[in-house]
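All the exercises in this workshop are built on plain-text protein records. Sequence and backbone structure share a record, each on its own labelled line. The structure tokens are whole numbers drawn from a learned vocabulary of backbone shapes. The record below serves as our worked example for the rest of this section.
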Amino acid sequence: MDLSIVVPAYNEDESLRELLQEVSEVTEREGYDWEIIFIDDGSTDKTWEVIEELHAQSPRVRGIRFQRNYGKAAALHTGFQATRGRVVITMDADLQDRPQHIPEFYKMIVEDGYDLVSGWKQKRKDPITKTIPTKLYNGVNRMVSGIKLHDQNCGFKSYRAEVVKTVEVYGDMHRYIPVIAKAAGFGKIGELKVEHIARKYGKTKYGWNRFVNGLLDLLTITFLTRYGKRPMHFFGFWALILILAGGGVLGYLYVRKFLGEVGVIENYYISDRIPALFFGSTTVLLGTLLLFTGLLAELIGRSSATRNEYLVSIELDRDDPNQK
């Protein structure tokens, strides 16, 4: 199959029929062999009834219904596992993404060789309560992740099938699929300017809390991608810094006291340097705790079933009769 389109939906019963019509017009014109998978993320309106209706009208429409609301990441992960196309495109269900861009996304994957292409809503049609957190988030994300995408959080993306079958999306980590994909070795990431349309039905489901949660998730995914298989390198580095700093302060205090007692320098009393003593002792203690945290993380990692799981791109076997 050429193309799979994954559409998470939460209380979007008013927009699904129109979205399917627009997608069908584009994909049929291009001659794709395609499917569209709607994931009802525990909607409380008639979203699932509409999906059932659309499925009855077209065999290209598939539907998955969650028992309750799990979030967009869970919907995408489940949809990814169900896809059958060589190219996978994700879209939001709110009609703010224009299906006319689908051929461009498809071409960048198939012909230009990209692993992942992210949409860039250069001119957003959202309220200021959504645009300001988005700009702040994208700026911090570019700085921390090193991936130079203007709109990494855009839900309009395309992927090679190998990418969506490999990356694990959980929690709210759908925002960081490019980061996860790059860490997994899918490093050819592109960007496509897309037209953004003002919301026609319903209201946005995001606010400022999304920005705060996004920053916390960014710290999590940065740590996991860089140190997931070697946590001691992270904890151990900061442990040594703290132990050396605190040990240096304590060493200085005791040397001064010893030299003062034997008369080499003026009398010097530890009691006169309580803040420095407290700082040195606390710093050494924190460093020691970080060191043991790193050791525990290594022990947990060694007992993990995934500790030696690595992604293999190509394997040559001299005993394979099909190889020359």
The chain has a mean pLDDT of 83.
